[in-house]
Amino acid sequence: MDSTLTSDAEAGLRSEARPLPQGYEAMPATDPKSPVALFGADEPLAMDSGAALAPFQIAYQTAGTLNAERSNAVLICHALTGDQHFAHRHPVTGKAGWWETLVGPGKPIDTDRYFVVCSNVIGSCMGSTGPASVDPATAKPYGLDFPLVTIRDMVRAQAMLLDRLGIPDLFLCIGGSMGGMQVLQWASLFPERVFAAMPIATGARHSAQNIAFHEVGRQAIMADPAWADGRYFEEGTRPAKGLGVARMGAHITYLSEPALHRKFGRRLQNRAAPTFSFNADFQIESYLRHQGLSFVERFDANAYLYLTRAMDYFDLAEDHGGVLANAFRASKTRFCVIAFTSDWLFPTADSRAIVHALNAVAAPVAFVEVESDKGHDAFLLDEPALFSAARGFVDAAARARGL
Amino acid sequence: MGPTDAVAGAPWKSIETLPRNAGDDGTRVDHLVVLGLVPDGARVLDIGCGDGSLLALLRDRRSVDGRGIELSRAGVNACLARGLPVIQGDADTDLANYPDNAFDVVVLSQTIQATRNPRIVLDHLLRIGKQVIISFPNFGHWRVRAELAFRGRMPVTEIMPEAWYETPNIHHCTIRDFVGLCRTVGAEIEKATALDGRGRPMRYSMPWWFWNLVGAQGVFLLRSGGTDHE
């Protein structure tokens, strides 16, 4: 753990006017190091805000092979700060794919059997069009001129990508957290295109508490003078301090009190006694500073504003007359809903609300509450009970589909 | 119309006995009893479905569209592996959201005595299922009575194996008590029987009071009694 900490974690987060990384064009926002689907001026993305986004692009990754019947496609929906590199080395951090625990040869989502697609969501910063992309009208980064994005916009864009890839319908749509919101939106918006759905550690709406956490993160970014009203690329600054603090706060919500206690307790960081200063005396402080610092290397501050907002706006029941069950009335999809006992960001009650709505329309739904003290992030971690549930559900769905 | 007298004679039909070789293939005999009551292609909800063996049997032999509710994660995982849509939950909290008549048959096997509110649970079963199959250990069994009468102890038997301080069974009843609850909630008893210690339906030539004395379990096929329940 300690060895992963950089020495500048100790110095805290600085918000100096650091130079743009070797030319703006080399950033993941414009150079995603993955395939990109381009949609021209004649193929706009109709967004909930009323905007028609064109041209735009979607960066994506795939693994496995689409079968002749085109019936074995899996769509992975990534979470807030995730990206398309689910089973591929990350071009910025160099880390392994973020869901290689669950996806890969012989894994519950077996890339020897299924054609797995994951696209960077619209509004993000890893190659799909978002606020860090260049606005063709001004030849400058969009910044806050980018239209507000919703979960439904992300799903519409993914559907356009699947059309482009020649995938008529999905064998499985799966994702955790914000990815789970997309899964629910997929099943609701395109019921005939989703055979099986696995929303994990998610909810059909963002709670007041979660909106509150997001607002604190956004205010931290906006309070950073280097944010410059979102025009930091032109100003030659980066709101690293604001974004880092936003990440630090959010990261706490992804863990749990028992997990924090187990990993860090009140242990001190490379010292025998408190220094009577505001240095990072405690390991947990050092860890959070490191999380903040490493995050700003790979993520765009404006994209963070947009994607947190998309989650805040998500309320699937509200879109259907206040009755969540109505969102799934036409559904023939088989569902497997998974929650984690120690997840306080999307507690089990949120998943149960989804299950009860699906029960109300007599949809086939399985529900598992996985015992874990790892908090919300458990869906990304080595969690055998998650894997066994996923394997059982996916294998049975494959048999039902004749795969 | 409910029964007029639970003891002197039963106005409902008995559940048929099984052939002598029933269960020889390893299938649980009490599951075969349920199998005999479920029509082909029915929509079935099994509450407390364990590892899904009954649902799988009904799917394979009756082509039912089966759903389940199970408390244990191990049970839910076993059901998932069988391809059965089962939710982790329990009868006390997870029945309210199902719409009326959502299922042709609802099965509650050996569970009602462990619920916090058996009457509300039974109301929900009758609401969401057109028919209800319910089984429970008979607290009127002679061994139970003997334990209490002669030893002054709470009984521990094959079907009720836990001591009083460990048992999940907080609402024990006799077959006769259950018939009384059916009358209270306006449930119509279509068929009923008692199972012996091996889970086989007892010969129905026996008088009803005899079932309440020697039956290890009661099994009932109910339906909502109509206007007095609505």
From TrEMBL, chain A:
For the region Disordered, what residue ranges are annotated? Answer: 1-31
* InterPro entries assigned to the protein according to its UniProt record, in alphabetical order: AB_hydrolase_1 (IPR000073), AB_hydrolase_fold (IPR029058), HAT_MetX-like (IPR008220)
Gene name tied to this protein: metXA_2
Q: Where does substrate bind?
A: 247, 377
The catalysed reaction is: L-homoserine + acetyl-CoA = O-acetyl-L-homoserine + CoA
UniProt pathway: Amino-acid biosynthesis; L-methionine biosynthesis via de novo pathway; O-acetyl-L-homoserine from L-homoserine: step 1/1
Domain AB hydrolase-1: where?
72-381
Which family does the record assign?
Answer: Belongs to the AB hydrolase superfamily. MetX family.
Q: NCBIfam families from the xrefs?
A: homoserO_Ac_trn, PRK00175.1
- Asked whether the keyword Amino-acid biosynthesis is assigned, the reply is yes
Its function, per the record, reads:
Transfers an acetyl group from acetyl-CoA to L-homoserine, forming acetyl-L-homoserine.
What is the name of the protein in this document?
Homoserine O-acetyltransferase
Q: Which organism is it from?
A: Methylobacterium thuringiense
Organism lineage reads as:
Bacteria, Pseudomonadati, Pseudomonadota, Alphaproteobacteria, Hyphomicrobiales
Q: How does it assemble?
A: Homodimer.
Q: Which HAMAP family match?
A: MetX_acyltransf (MF_00296)
Where does this protein reside within or beyond the cell?
Cytoplasm
Top class in the EC scheme: transferase
Automatic annotation (TrEMBL), chain B:
Superkingdom: Bacteria
Q: Which SUPFAM superfamilies match?
A: S-adenosyl-L-methionine-dependent methyltransferases
Tell me the InterPro entries matching this sequence. Methionine_synth_MetW, SAM-dependent_MTases_sf
Tell me the Pfam families matching this sequence. MetW (PF07021)
Put simply, this protein is called Methionine biosynthesis protein MetW
Organism (species): Methylobacterium thuringiense
